[in-house]
Design a protein that fits this description.
Distance between the termini: 102 Å
Shape: elongated
Radius of gyration: 39 Å
Strand order of the largest sheet: 3-2-1-4-5-7-11
Number of helices: 39
């Protein structure tokens, strides 16, 4: 050429490195550079070996493509400018050899990074390697290139599709590229694949997500370099060059056109009014070439102030086209050139409603596919249509995100680029979308799909038209038959309804009415006996009577009381369930000198106010009467087990170190669904901090750590020993401190693994902390089973939470919980809280004795405090006793009759919970909405199901506990200690316990006073009889 345009002159003498040269955009880019930039010096193409072909063979294959025919004609000697470089963007450092790296560093002056995996369903590990790590490595390579003039990174207009407005700037990604690459390289494939949905967050697929992260790579790693980003929207076939309508892939909009034209695709979930936002590939590549020229110019103007320039190359602003217009144009022009390979006549619809779309694909895709596959099987052939439609539906699902949403794109940089371009450049590198003629484009677009994708040459058109005509009449015939069948079905349905309505007065409901009345009478007689006066009197007496016995005789102390004489005790978790009973018992039955209670400020209340609030609980009523001066022996210590070093101040820490002789570490988060970060902080790190504090206590006589009998529930046999940690506590605390909350939540199931929840998992590790860090201390581990209400003291039946078994009692007693996934023969393994605390107090005495006796040979004792060995109760007995004593004192607040089924089969449980929980919940919520009230039952049942799933692990398994240490400790106790600190589970009477257990839940949880029993029974009878009366009124 005698004269060159500014863009052509810019590429004169350039050595260009292109990644992704074998792809759709890459081929057009290479062709355009070689054809329209004649003085370009060299084009280096990154190519990987594939399918047994070496580098040379793959390069030759590329240039055999018809898209290079024009180049061969106009520039026949172009091949000497092309240099193939072996590499792979899926490998570190692009898989380049040292020699090739050296050549590229010395020669390259321009880079076009086009390579990407564009599969929407690509695995995140692969997408991260290709779309994130590769541009990082390429940018680090580019930084070493002394001749570098520009580098262009090809992204996508939808990289930031989680925003409604997409500007020409880099948006922060939800995860840093360094963290993403690290996880992709280090995490096992299975784990990384499973957590992918959480990592993607609001992004629809791995492609868009990794492209957004890649832009952040460019922004950070490309700082100070002449780097630009171009974001094309949905790229379709060529508009004009090098040949009209060339395309080589089925991605995006082209797949819809091809599928509909061949008669496979008949329905798509798509909003017809949304922008299709397509751009021809040749115009896209021209804009890329021109953008590189502008980026280099802008960089040279002011290198220090240059920031990565971004170009949103999309058509919604300059040449908008919605999906309805796209499909109308595809149909109108496609029908003029149908393919001989079409399987059915064109019949396609866009469905904005997802429900209508599902109905359409069932009728238009699934049913025809099943019929065709059945015919193929009858003919002895292999079925294939359902497999084809499975792929089609997967494709439809993938693109539906972009077909049902609208974005506002800002493209000022593209307009600025077009304004800078000379007239020659605008003609040579045509990329102004305002001059695009969609009608002209579609005239050739469907022909290109037919020829280059379907590989159906135009000379088969006469044959195709004849076939198309036959398919048309077959299509019309099917529509007539389908219409007739539909009318026949509707007519049959109307007859069915008429017959049933006419017969209703004669036969409907009579058999069911009879059965119901029989069951109704049986229910009334069996569940509400007439002679309950004595039981009711007993319940009222037991719950209202306070035992005024004084357990502490200063002049005649028991051995355990003597051990606690003048003791200064530090208690964590004192505001919790176990903690309250422990504080009460120590103050009431032990001559302790001081109780240091760790209390955190909460809801604006300081520790002293919170302590006053604590002692207002009814559970301390007996203690206050026996020890009116109790407050003199209580010191509130400000702290928080979720904070480092228990949140203790320096002065309080010194006081505890100097004074404390006994430690009870009860504090824990007992929520089964607690986040791993919080559970680790409270249950693991706080335990470690408590041990570190105890090591400084020179007067320490005993330290009891309260764990749980189920800390090692992954084992069938649970001995009184410390098991190896599931994960070393140092590793766990480090991970929870470093990894962000959202990612940690995603990884939690893989850390917890076999353990049912974060509570037992962190409790298991906390035992390891004690075993590893507390050697040489007089320490013991106390493992209670499922802790329920008080048996005898300080008041019978007291409880303040609905965890575990009590939640089952409360939920079923209120008529809300009707079915539970549970093996009725499995051990319930419950222990009353007062007996549990007495055992804890006695265990501290036992630990101190053992430590004194053995000293250097002391082994940390573990106490499994549970009932399976001494007073076994299974879930069937638990249910029977709950029902029996619950019906003696029903609550006015119950919403339905007591009725709970223990289901061992999980599928049956799911089935019954749907009918017995969700359906009544939906119906009741509908009733509330009709009456202008807020629905609440479905939400309540979601919480109930969450609770049920949480405890199911422990209701469906049996464990073999060993409790020799507990038996030895109980055997050592004197007769008086055995009475004052009653903890021998062999003496527990479940029948006697239940007299106050269920009614206690009524009083202390439902807040329904015991003097309303009669009103509760009347309310309960109305609930039981209501349905029977409804039937009686009908007849």
């Amino acid at each position: 050429m005698d004269s060159q345009s500014p863009v052509q002159a810019f590429y004169s003498g350039a050595s260009v490195f292109v990644t992704g040269a074998t792809g759709f955009l890459g081929r057009i880019l290479v062709e355009k550079l070689l054809r329209s930039c004649p003085d370009i010096a060299c084009v280096y193409l990154l190519i990987r070996n594939k399918k047994g072909k070496d580098l040379q063979a793959r390069t030759e294959d590329i240039f055999e493509d018809v898209v290079f025919d024009r180049l061969k004609k106009e520039r026949p000697k172009f091949r000497h400018k092309v240099v193939a470089v072996a590499g792979d963007c899926a490998l570190p450092n692009l898989g380049l050899s040292e020699q090739d790296t050296k050549i590229l560093l010395q020669e390259v002056s321009m880079i076009f990074h086009v390579a990407a995996t564009v599969r929407f369903d690509e695995k995140l590990k692969t997408a991260t390697a290709v779309n994130v790590r590769a541009p990082r490595d390429l940018l680090r390579l580019a930084r070493q290139m002394p001749k570098l003039k520009v580098m262009m990174h090809v992204s996508t207009a939808y990289s930031n599709c989680d925003n409604d407005v997409i500007e020409e700037r880099i948006y922060p990604s939800s995860i840093g590229y360094k963290e993403l690459i690290m996880m992709a390289e280090r995490l096992p494939d299975k784990i990384f694949e499973d957590i992918t949905p959480r990592i993607l967050d609001r992004h629809p697929n791995t492609y868009a997500f990794t492209k957004q992260v890649a832009e952040n790579v460019v922004g950070e790693e490309g700082r100070g370099l002449p780097v630009g980003i171009i974001r094309p929207s949905i790229v379709v076939s060529t508009y004009k060059e090098p040949i009209v309508a060339w395309i080589n892939n089925m991605y995006g909009a082209t797949g819809v056109s091809a599928g509909a034209g061949l008669g496979f695709l008949r329905a798509l979930y798509c909003d017809p009014d949304c922008n299709a936002n397509i751009v021809p590939v040749d115009m896209c590549v021209n804009s890329l070439i021109a953008a590189a020229w502008e980026v280099a110019e802008e960089y040279e103007k002011d290198k220090t102030r240059y920031h990565t320039r971004i170009y949103n190359y999309e058509s919604s602003n300059d040449k908008p086209l919605n999906w309805k217009e796209f499909m109308d144009a595809s149909r109108n022009h496609g029908m003029l050139t149908p393919s001989s390979k079409a399987v059915w006549y064109y019949s396609f619809g866009l469905y904005k409603s997802y429900a209508m779309y599902l109905m359409a694909i069932f009728i238009l895709h699934v049913i025809p596919a099943l019929l065709v596959d059945a015919a193929l099987m009858c003919a002895g052939k292999s079925p294939k249509m359902m497999k084809i439609y499975a792929k089609i539906h997967k494709f439809s699902t993938v693109i539906s995100y972009f077909c049902t949403r609208q974005w506002v794109f800002k493209s000022e940089n593209v307009r600025r680029l077009l304004a800078k371009m000379s007239n020659d450049d605008k003609a040579t590198f045509f990329c102004d979308l305002r001059e695009l003629d969609w009608d002209l484009f579609f005239q050739h677009y469907l022909r290109g799909v037919r020829v280059y994708l379907v590989h159906d040459p135009m000379d088969t058109l006469p044959e195709a038209m004849r076939k198309w005509n036959r398919l048309y009449w077959a299509h019309q015939a099917i529509k007539v038959v389908a219409g007739f069948l539909l009318l026949r079905i509707l007519w049959s349905l109307l007859l069915f309804i008429y017959n049933k309505t006419w017969r209703e007065d004669h036969k409907l409901h009579k058999p069911s009415h009879f059965i119901y009345c029989v069951l109704h009478q049986l229910l009334l007689k069996s569940l509400i006996p007439c002679t309950l006066r004595s039981s009711e009197s007993l319940i009222v007496h037991r719950l209202s009577h306070v035992d005024d016995r004084i357990d502490l005789d200063e002049a005649n102390l028991t051995p355990i009381q003597d051990f606690y004489k003048d003791a200064k005790v530090f208690v964590t978790g004192c505001t919790g369930f176990l903690g309250r009973i422990l504080v009460d018992k120590l103050l009431r039955s032990c001559p302790v000198s001081t109780l240091y209670l760790l209390v955190r400020e909460k809801k604006g209340k300081n520790v002293d106010a919170r302590l006053d609030e604590l002692f207002d609980d009814v559970v301390f009523r007996r203690m206050k009467k026996a020890r009116p001066d109790y407050r003199k022996r209580v010191v509130a210590v400000s702290g928080d087990c979720s904070l480092p070093d228990l949140g203790l101040g320096a002065q309080d820490k010194k006081m505890l170190v100097d004074e404390v002789t006994l430690v009870f570490h009860i504090a824990a988060t007992v929520r089964f669904d607690e986040t791993l970060k919080r559970a680790t902080a409270i249950n693991v790190q706080a335990t470690k901090d408590m041990v570190m504090l105890a090591k400084q206590m020179t007067r320490l006589k005993a330290f009891l750590h309260v764990s749980t009998a189920f800390a090692n529930c992954i084992d069938d046999v649970i001995e009184e020993k410390v098991y190896p940690m599931a994960m070393h506590y140092k590793h766990l605390t480090q991970i929870t401190q470093v990894v962000d909350d959202r990612l940690l939540e995603t990884l939690t199931p893989y850390f917890v693994e076999k353990y049912p929840n974060t509570y037992v998992y962190t409790k298991q590790i906390a035992e390891g902390v004690i075993n590893e860090e507390a050697q040489g201390l007089p320490v013991g581990i106390y493992r209670p089973a499922i802790v329920i209400s008080t048996y005898k003291e300080p008041i019978p039946g007291w409880i303040n939470n609905i965890y575990g078994a009590t939640g089952v009692v409360f939920g079923s007693g209120m008529g809300m919980l009707r079915v539970l996934y549970c093996d009725g023969d499995a051990d319930a393994n419950m222990v009353p809280v007062d007996m549990c605390i007495n055992g804890l107090i006695a265990s501290a005495w036992d630990v101190a004795q053992r430590f004194q006796e053995t000293k250097s040979d002391f082994q940390i004792p573990v106490y499994n405090y549970e009932t399976t060995n001494d007073k076994r109760i299974d879930w069937n007995v638990f249910r029977e006793l709950s029902g029996k004593y619950g019906l003696y004192a029903p609550s006015e607040l119950c919403v339905w009759t007591y009725c709970i089924y223990l289901i061992k089969s999980y599928p049956l449980y799911v089935f019954l919970s749907f009918f017995m929980h969700m359906i009544p919940g939906v119906l009741m919520d509908a009733y509330l909405v009709i009456n202008g009230r807020k629905p609440r039952l479905v939400k309540t049942y979601k919480k109930i199901h969450s609770f049920s799933s949480v405890i199911a692990y422990f209701c469906t398994r049996c464990f073999d506990f060993r409790s020799a240490n507990v038996q030895l400790m109980v055997g050592k106790m004197s007769d008086r200690d055995a009475e004052v600190f009653f903890c021998d589970l062999k003496r527990l009477d479940w029948e006697d316990f239940y007299v106050t257990y269920v009614p206690g839940a009524r009083v202390y949880l439902a807040k329904d006073p015991i003097d309303t029993i009669e009103a509760g029974k009347r309310h309960y009878r109305r609930r039981v009889s209501r349905n029977g009366k409804l039937y009686e009124r009908k007849h």
